[in-house]
Every structure is written in structure tokens, then in C-alpha cells.
Write a structure and sequence with these properties.
Largest sheet: 5 strands, antiparallel
Strand content: 35-45%
Shape: globular
Radius of gyration: 22 Å
Length: 386
């Protein structure tokens, strides 16, 4: 048999094909799904989808000034072909404020008062330029604070959730949680109340929403419910490291992320010279994965300073991290708010962005593009609104 004829008879196993495809950029793979029905099937099979690339391309941020656009600070060698300004949403005349991001989907609010018949909460996908507005919840008692948490994981479901945390001033500080289901474009009637204030950093991993307490050192874990559920399954998890707000400390710098479907947490040690990164093993056991020296990164020995009130604080912040790409994103707060990426494996430091002090960088919002389409029922709700 001729060598060329022999090569044409080789049949690669599915596992080997997926291993090859997983080395492609996500955008390239999504384009190549049209090559064959088998390649298309890989993208919808949960077992194989977990092996396909899901890497961040940048950090989303927005200036504090009213009316400014959302921006994407690209990481080294990342895809820049993303419309983070959301110009495709032309039926909204007022600017949008970035609030949350989950696996390629963005949650935004309107600046100012909402237009008649249009909700002030919107979920969109900059990679595919699709979006939908969330219906308003039913009027209820006076609310002193509300926080929305967007939950989307394409490896877990094609639909997304939005958890709404509302705190009312009556009888103390009670928090009520309701859930929006994109599959049915409706808010659930499942209510859950707590006296704790869970408005901190959050992450959705494998069907579980993890939310940090506003000032205490633990997480709330809420299982994604179905529409028939009246009670939300929940538990609390103690975070590793030191608790927020030790005496004379003014540090709130812990960050959540996930690696290969496992929840991770990063925090400075007490002197700020080292960063530890843990992964959650099982339900409540944290294991140290990395201990990183920051003296070499910033070129100085002292990382702890005091403000005018005599409170200690770190002179840099952990904005985000990605263990699969082995990157940590840091803000040097004493060097003109310089944003840098640090490679865990090579020690290389790259400057991403210089921002003036008036810029509000939405921390921990690493942007991972999602090129899948919204289900038809989700888009119909958006068309009815615009």
C-alpha cells in the first residue's frame, strides 16, 4: 500500500480528536464545528466539552464617570475581536453599567432610570452580540440594597440564572433571595431569607453559586434550583487564610476563581509579601496549590503600608487569577494604578494597562468569551422587549 493511501485509512479515536481540538483557541474551534457532524457533536457532549479550551482573554473594566463605555483590557496574545462596548444594543439609548460576568455572559444595568417597558437589568453576550432584558420582579417592601449575581456555565447548562439578593431595613438587616430562570424567562417563587449579608465576590461553578459574606470570612454555597423548588439548598464554607479586618487592618483582597471545575481562592499573607492560592477539595477542605513571592514581582521588600487613619493596607491588589493559564492579575496601587499580569510558571511580568485613580476596575471579572448561541426561547424574550 502506498504511504499516502495508508494515511487516508487512519481513523482517529474521539478522545484523540478532542485532545487535538482542545489545543486550538476557542474561537477557532467554534468556527471549525462546521467541518463535520462529529466535530459538532463534540461541542455539545458534556464529557468532551470539559476538555475544550475555556481561557480568559482580558479583564473588563469601566470608568467611574457617568456615560463611559465598558472596556476590555486584553491579556497577552488574546483575541481582541470582542465588542465590549455593547454597541450592538442600539435600542438602549442610555449607557450601560457593568455589574457582573459569568463565563462569557455579562450582566449590565441602565444608567439612571429605566425606559418605559424595559427592565434595567440586561444579560448579553459580546462574542455573539445577543442579549435579553430581565423582566422586573414583583413590587415588594422597601429595599435598602439589592445585588444581582449572574450564574452561567455552558459545561453545566445552556441556560443561565440570576440570583437577586435584597436587603430590607425592617427588623434589622434581613436578606431575601429570589431566582430568575432564563429557560422560562421568569422569576421563581422560591424565597430564602438570611440575616447575613452576602454581597461580596461570587462565582458559579458546577451548578453551585458561591458568594462571599460582605465582611465575615466565609462563603455561602447555593445550589441552582428548579422552578418547582420552594427552598434553596445551601451551606456555608469557611475560607482559608486570615479573616477580613483583623485589628487595624483595612484589607479585603481575597479573590475567587475556578480551575477545571474546582473552586479556588487567592489571598495575600499578613505581610503581603506572599500570595497563597487554594483549591476546594470536597465540600470544605482547602488545599494550597501555589505560594507566590511578590517581592520579585514589584521589586520592593515592603508590601504593607498605613493610611492617614493608621490602618494597615497592602500596596497592591489581587484583581483576578487563572490557574489553567497560570496567570495572576495584579494592580500596583502606588505606581499610578498599573495593572500587570504575572506568569506563575515563568515569573514573567507584563503590563496590561495604566489607569488613573478615577477609574473603577471591576475586580475579578476575567472575561472568558462564549461563542455559543442563546436558546431560541431566551432570544424571543429580548425581541418582545425591544
Amino acid at each position: 500500500m502506498e504511504p499516502r493511501q495508508w494515511m487516508t485509512t487512519i481513523v482517529l479515536t474521539d478522545d484523540l480528536v478532542v485532545e487535538i481540538l482542545s489545543r486550538l483557541p476557542l474561537k477557532s474551534f467554534c468556527r471549525f464545528k462546521c467541518v463535520s457532524t462529529s466535530w459538532l457533536a463534540f461541542s455539545s457532549d458534556l464529557h468532551y466539552r470539559q476538555k475544550l479550551p475555556r481561557t480568559p482573554v482580558g479583564l473588563l473594566y469601566q470608568k467611574r464617570e457617568h456615560g463611559t463605555a465598558i472596556h476590555l483590557a486584553g491579556l497577552p496574545s488574546s483575541d481582541r475581536d470582542i465588542d465590549s462596548t455593547l454597541s450592538f444594543m442600539q435600542c438602549y439609548e442610555r449607557p450601560l453599567e457593568l455589574k457582573h460576568c459569568s463565563n462569557g455572559l455579562l450582566l449590565c444595568y441602565h444608567g439612571g432610570m429605566p425606559s418605559k417597558g424595559i427592565s434595567d437589568a440586561i444579560v448579553c453576550n459580546p462574542a455573539t452580540q445577543e442579549w435579553m432584558s430581565l423582566p422586573d420582579t414583583e413590587p415588594g417592601p422597601a429595599v435598602c440594597y439589592a445585588s444581582y449575581k449572574l450564574c452561567f456555565d455552558p459545561l453545566w447548562s445552556q441556560y443561565f440564572y440570576v440570583f437577586k439578593f435584597e436587603s430590607s431595613p425592617s427588623g434589622g438587616f434581613d436578606t431575601e433571595v429570589t431566582v430568575f430562570f432564563s429557560e422560562y424567562s421568569t422569576w421563581s417563587n422560591c424565597l430564602w431569607e438570611t440575616s447575613d449579608i452576602f454581597f461580596g465576590d461570587s462565582l458559579f461553578v458546577n451548578g453551585v453559586l458561591y458568594v462571599e459574606h460582605l465582611w465575615r470570612h466565609y462563603l455561602l454555597a447555593l445550589d441552582a434550583p428548579d422552578t418547582c423548588t420552594q427552598q434553596l439548598n445551601h451551606r456555608t464554607i469557611q475560607l482559608p487564610g486570615f479573616p477580613y479586618g483583623p485589628e487595624r487592618f483595612y484589607c479585603f483582597d481575597g479573590r475567587l476563581w475556578q480551575s477545571s471545575g474546582v473552586l479556588c481562592y487567592a489571598q495575600q499573607e499578613l505581610d503581603g509579601c506572599m500570595i497563597r492560592i487554594w483549591s476546594l477539595e470536597g465540600y470544605d477542605r482547602w488545599v494550597v496549590k501555589h505560594r507566590l513571592n511578590m517581592n520579585n514581582v514589584f521589586g520592593r521588600d515592603i508590601m504593607l503600608r498605613t493610611n492617614n487613619e493608621g490602618l494597615w493596607y497592602f500596596d497592591y491588589e489581587i484583581l483576578a487569577f487563572d490557574l489553567e493559564r497560570e496567570l495572576v492579575i495584579l494592580a500596583d496601587t502606588i505606581a499610578d494604578n498599573k495593572i500587570i499580569s504575572y506568569s506563575i510558571s515563568t515569573g514573567k511580568v507584563c503590563q496590561i494597562l495604566n489607569i488613573p485613580s478615577f477609574v473603577n476596575l471591576y475586580r475579578s471579572l476575567l472575561y472568558v468569551p462564549y461563542y455559543g448561541k442563546f436558546p431560541a426561547c431566551v432570544l424571543q424574550a429580548a425581541q418582545d422587549k425591544c
